[in-house]
UniProtKB/TrEMBL annotation:
It comes from Nicotiana tabacum. This is Uncharacterized protein.
């Protein structure tokens, strides 16, 4: 009937009859549509043709039928897909109005749908119809349609205002189904429109839609914790999978773009409100996901994986929003206090979402650089960021849900928490200069030492980097307090690092920490003597634990079991060039004692290493001392070597000292060194 009314060659009388019959069917037999949902596209197509007919007599009635069809209890169901069909129906129809210069129809639509919406009209249909009209207006850019655009945007704002008012006290888990559906339609419609003027309540509705409909993680977390463990898959898995396949989730990127554009245009009050909502959402997702991951890990991997797909998309939303905040609120004109507070909150939010970062986004890096630059220049901001770090007790004790209290919590297996702490460990070295010694002692040191024992290499290495950064810092107002803390930390640092080597302590991290403390502690510090003594003891222990008697070739390749000892020896040799003159004699003495206790083939290999190290040294102050020490060490090693030992550096120097070689040999060796 609708198509017949649209045929140009049909008579006006025939068109009128068709339109009348169509209106009667929609008013009296709409229940039939519910019996077959597949008929809805055909019904809407018929209405679209009828609205575009050259006969206007039933135009208002058809509009009312279209708008009222969905809220009837026995009528067709309202759904997002049906809403999109309404949007495109009105887009096509309105294009026809413009092309046919039907000013009367445009005025009637504006009056009946946009300006004087009837109570019986379905709000989602009104939103979608207005969105369809706006799509046409944004494409045409005709100045004559600007008033209509204002009316359409105003109608959407009025509906959004009602949504905000009705959902003011609702949280993530208690959004009413009717409001939930309308939020989905409104956000989806806005993603299809194109340019849209700033509207305060639309902005707030988009915020709510993103957090409750597009990324509804907290609501799902609540369901999981309230569900009996045996019914998790049946109750939640299907719902999560359906959400991943839904239209609204697939349009998350476009909706996020509209949301960020609205933020740029928003007033300061609403900007601040939305910022707080987003940052709090990040915190809530972190807290909830920690518990849920603990519950589901190794039990419901499919459900956990699907949840993390939603969370990964939520991470993208947070990143793009934070970038918009950084560009438009952290400018030179903003007060410094606001810039600092906002920068810290962005960093904390990113730390909460770090577990869901699966790729290196340029927008993420740009935001990090922008906020870190501001934080590292301000002591109060640095302290605020550091103090947001979870406490030691929180890190090592997780509250387990009642139904899972028999589970043992291990902080090393908490991947969500580990990702967050790793974020802190990577950012803190950039601002450690501004962190007072008292704050480092109270807040950072326990966490730093805890995560030095983490089995994941990159996490442990990041902890060592924090130690290195602190050792290298020195702009504290109370420098004596900072130096005292450095010396105190060394004792536990060395103990903590060496007890995990080889194992969870990465050698690169250990070496960088030792080098940093040797370089930056005061000359002759007892902490340096203690560190060297422990390194020698550890090297001796590593060598003693390897049975090298039947494996003489091990000393030539340094592979396998001897590799940790070789790494420790390389570090000790490096320290010969780094320690101050007050510490050097002690290091040489302890290193000589270590070498003398080694098997003869090991002694020769190490003496060759020492020879090369000393020969390449450019330090004119300590080189003579090292040459003399190496000669003495070679002599001592030769005294303990059997006559069958290959003639290495130790043998050559001993021969020269005992007169077994030409008297010029010693001078030649000394000259080469």
């Amino acid at each position: 009937l609708g198509a017949l009314s649209f045929v140009p060659s049909a008579s006006e009388k025939s068109k009128t009859v068709c339109l009348k019959l169509l209106c009667q069917l929609l008013e009296e037999d709409y229940r039939l549509i519910r019996l077959s949902e597949r008929a809805i596209p055909n019904v809407l197509a018929g209405i679209g043709y009828a609205l575009s007919s050259s006969v206007n007599i039933y135009f208002v009635k058809l509009l009312c039928c279209l708008m009222e069809l969905w809220d009837k209890s026995d009528g067709p169901s309202a759904s997002v897909s049906n809403g999109l069909m309404v949007l495109h129906l009105m887009e096509w129809s309105f294009s026809n109005f413009i092309n046919s210069h039907s000013a009367d129809k445009i005025d009637l639509f504006s009056r009946e749908v946009l300006k004087n919406t009837r109570p019986a009209f379905s709000l989602f249909a009104v939103v979608m119809a207005a969105a369809g009209v706006l799509r046409v207006i944004n494409r045409s850019e005709q100045k004559a349609l600007m008033e209509l655009k204002t009316s359409a945007e105003g109608r959407i704002e009025i509906i959004a205002h009602g949504l905000v008012s009705s959902a003011r006290d609702a949280d993530y888990a208690t959004v009413e189904p009717r409001n939930s559906f309308l939020l989905q339609c409104l956000s989806l419609a806005l993603s299809k429109i194109g340019p849209f003027s700033y509207q305060a309540h639309v902005f707030l509705c988009l915020t709510t839609a993103l957090l409750t409909e597009i990324f509804p993680l907290p609501r799902i977390y609540v369901k999981i914790q309230e569900s009996p463990s045996g019914n998790l898959v049946g109750l939640v898995l299907n719902e999560v999978q359906q959400h991943l396949d839904s239209i609204i989730f697939k349009e998350a990127g476009a909706i996020t773009g509209v949301f960020c554009n609205q933020y740029v245009l928003a007033d300061e009050e609403n900007r601040s409100i939305v910022e707080d909502i987003i940052w709090n959402y990040c915190r809530d997702v972190y807290m909830w996901h920690r518990q849920v991951a603990l519950m589901l890990r190794d039990r419901e991997e499919a459900l956990l994986g699907n949840l993390e797909k939603i969370a990964e998309s939520a991470f993208f939303m947070v990143v793009f929003f934070a970038l918009a905040v950084t560009k438009h609120k952290l400018g030179l004109g903003a007060p410094q206090e606001i810039q600092m507070r906002l920068s810290v909150r962005i960093l904390v939010a990113f730390s909460c979402m770090e577990y869901f970062r699966r790729m290196r986004l340029p927008e993420y890096m740009d935001t990090i650089r922008a906020v870190v630059t501001r934080v590292q220049e301000n002591e109060s901001a640095c302290v605020s960021f550091v103090e947001s770090l979870p406490s030691y007790d929180d890190l090592t004790n997780q509250a387990v849900p009642t139904s899972f209290q028999k589970m043992e919590y291990l902080w090393t297996t908490d991947e969500v928490q580990t990702a967050r702490i790793l974020f802190y460990l990577r950012v803190i070295p950039t601002c450690v200069e501004c962190i007072p010694a008292s704050v480092f002692r109270k807040v950072l040191a326990p966490t730093m030492f805890l995560y030095m024992g983490h089995p994941t290499g990159k996490v442990a290495k990041a902890s060592h980097s924090v130690f290195v950064a602190f050792m290298s810092s020195g702009k504290d107002a109370d420098l004596d307090e900072r130096v005292t803390l450095k010396e105190q930390l060394v004792f536990y640092y060395v103990k903590r690092s060496l007890e995990g080597y080889p194992g969870f302590t990465p050698f690169e991290g250990l070496a960088s920490g030792v080098v940093a403390l040797v370089r930056h502690l005061p000359a002759g510090s007892p902490s340096i003597f203690y560190c060297i003594s422990c390194l020698i003891e550890k090297a001796d222990s590593l060598c003693s634990s390897v049975n090298t008697t039947p494996k003489n070739d091990l000393w030539k390749s340094w592979d396998g079991e001897l590799e940790p000892f070789k790494q420790m020896l390389d570090l000790l040799l490096r320290l010969l060039s780094l320690v101050d003159i007050q510490v050097l004699p002690s290091l040489m003495k302890l290193l000589a004692q270590l070498v003398v206790r080694l098997p003869s083939n090991g002694q020769d290999m190490i003496l060759n290493e020492l020879y090369q190290h000393v020969a390449e040294s450019d330090d004119v102050i300590r080189k003579p001392t090292l040459v003399s020490w190496l000669q003495s060490l070679s002599y001592l090693c030769y005294q303990n070597t059997s006559k069958k030992t290959p003639k290495g550096v130790g043998q050559v120097i001993h021969d020269s000292m005992s007169g077994a070689t030409d008297s010029l040999t010693m001078n030649k060796i000394s000259a080469r060194l």
